[in-house]
From TrEMBL:
Its cofactor is FAD. The keyword Zinc-finger does not apply. Gene3D superfamilies: FAD/NAD(P)-binding domain (3.50.50.60), Succinate dehydrogenase/fumarate reductase flavoprotein, catalytic domain (3.90.700.10). The keyword Oxidoreductase applies. PANTHER family: FAD-DEPENDENT OXIDOREDUCTASE 2 FAD BINDING DOMAIN-CONTAINING PROTEIN, FUMARATE REDUCTASE. This is FAD-dependent tricarballylate dehydrogenase TcuA. Keywords: FAD, Flavoprotein, Oxidoreductase. Residues 3-439 form the FAD-dependent oxidoreductase 2 FAD-binding domain. It holds the Pfam family FAD_binding_2.
Length: 484
């Protein structure tokens, strides 16, 4: 019988598998996706948010624990478990040497990735390179890996894991039978339910016209995160946490594909212009804070607009100050012409932009800091980077909500154990998106999802092995668990 079974194939699952194997346990990892699509949402990531008290290789200046905590507290509005959040923050300061030992390389913040040189360590080659490095290391260490292995349900004896069941499936022209895989311990790291359209419909409901709100959502990441195991564990009595409508939801290009559009479909010029709905009206402060702290609220904001669509509008002055998306913006020499091309009501749109232009207060524009360019006398306000849109050509980008991952998940503690009726399971653990709601009740700040997945993946793997009598050679992560 295998010692530790890891269900999932992204960052958290791989961290768990590597840690359990390093401790001496035999490990099998089950990835629902085929090999070419392995890695879950992690393949689309770019960086990890890291605490550091002084400059560290690719990170400049310092980003101390308290500032990281305040950033997280602000975006979550207090909907976070401080003990677990601080565990993640502290773990982010010490994980990169371990990551490098498994083939992950880092590079300085990319030009155009605003305000992240101090807070985020970027993966050389992006998330796909990170995932590939972890899989190579896992296989070299003797971790068994199976692809096209979606687990249909978990077999429990009370709160104890017994076995995972893989349903019958059709793979590469072959019909494969159902399987039952026993293990002495298990780590669940199979993602959220963002690619389960029916569950999204259930969570978000219908609008006043009887339309399903979630039908207009795009999925930034993998199509394989259907939430089957999450739903099954909920039905089997596992404790849960989080709101099913809360998610890492970004405003992305409305022309993006339904799945796996990834980072390149994000629209990053929001703070440099205005955003309007299909009625041509602004609806939120585009310059509220630095973009890495606010980009993930815009998907939800757009989801609340008529038709779940919006339009990011800039003029020529903004070019070169943001990471351009994969699709070119609609270009026009006048605001009226732009409205016509985007299908917006011309009069309303032009009046909105003119009112915004008139409200802009002249200051010293600096998109690298919270500058003094703001609006007065218009609602909603724009707090920073407010400059009149008066320099043609003008550009417009259509927006739709892009769901990265959902926050409804399994309740856990500093040991990463799944809880049943308030008590931790002795051999079932959880990491990554399936438990991120313990730290992220709402909101998001760039790179923190990878911080959570890395911290709890390492903890879950270590604790799963420890439950069987194996102890990891590094005391660092065990100490974090004991003192969190």
């Amino acid at each position: 019988m295998i010692d530790v079974l890891v269900i999932g194939g992204g960052n958290a699952a791989l961290c768990a598998a590597l840690m359990a194997r390093e401790a001496g346990a035999s490990v099998l990892l089950l990835e629902a996706a085929p090999r070419e699509w392995r890695g879950g949402n992690s393949q689309h990531t770019r960086n990890l948010r890291c605490m550091h008290d002084a400059p560290q290789d690719v990170l400049v200046e310092s980003y101390p624990e308290e500032e990281f905590w305040q950033d997280l507290l602000k975006v979550t509005g207090g909907m976070t478990d401080e003990r677990l959040a601080r565990l993640v923050i502290r773990a982010s300061a010490t994980c990169r040497d371990w990551m490098r030992s498994h083939g992950v390389h880092f590079q300085p913040s990319l030009s155009g990735a605003l305000h992240t040189a101090r807070t985020n360590a970027f993966f050389m080659g992006g998330g796909k390179a990170l995932v590939n490095a972890y899989f190579r290391s896992a296989e070299q260490l003797g971790v068994g890996v199976r692809y096209n292995a979606p687990v249909s349900h978990i077999e429990l004896d009370g709160d104890r894991f017994v076995a995972a069941h893989i349903g019958p499936r059709h793979v590469n022209g072959r019909d494969l039978p159902a399987e039952r895989i026993e293990a002495r311990a298990c780590v669940l790291a199979a993602g959220g339910f963002e690619s389960n359209r029916e569950w999204l419909r259930e969570a978000w409901g219908q609008n006043e016209r009887g339309e399903w709100t979630a039908d207009n959502f795009l999925i930034r990441g993998t199509r394989f995160n259907t939430g089957v195991l999450l739903r099954g564990l909920m039905e089997q009595g596992a404790d849960t946490i989080g709101d099913p409508t809360q998610a890492h939801m970004v405003a992305i290009d409305a022309r993006a594909p339904l799945y796996d559009g990834g980072i390149c479909t994000r629209i990053d010029c929001v703070s440099l212009g205005v955003v309007v709905n299909r009625s041509g009206q602004r609806f939120y402060d585009e310059g509220e804070d630095f973009w890495p702290k606010r980009y993930a609220i815009w998907g939800r904001l757009v989801a609340q607009q008529p038709g779940q669509v919006g339009f990011s509008i800039i003029d020529q002055k903004a070019l070169g100050r943001f990471m351009p998306p994969v699709f070119a913006g609609t270009k026009a020499n006048t605001l009226g012409e732009l409205a016509q091309q985007l299908g917006l009501p011309e009069g309303e749109f032009v009046a909105t932009v003119q009112a915004y232009n008139a409200a802009c207060q002249v200051g010293t524009f600096d998109h690298t800091r919270l500058d003094d360019c703001h609006t007065q006398g218009v609602q909603p306000v724009k707090s920073h980077w407010a400059r009149p849109l008066d320099t043609p050509p003008f550009y417009g980008y259509p927006l739709r909500p892009g769901v990265t991952f959902t926050y409804l998940g399994l309740r856990t503690d500093h040991t990463a154990a799944v809880h049943f009726a308030g008590k931790p399971s002795p051999n079932l653990f959880v990491a990554g998106e399936m438990m991120a709601g313990n730290v992220l009740g709402k909101g998001y700040t760039a790179g923190v999802g990878m911080s959570i997945g890395t911290a709890f993946g390492r903890i879950a793997g270590t604790q799963a092995a420890a439950a069987l009598g194996y102890h990891h050679p590094s005391s660092e992560i065990t100490h974090d668990c004991a003192t969190a």
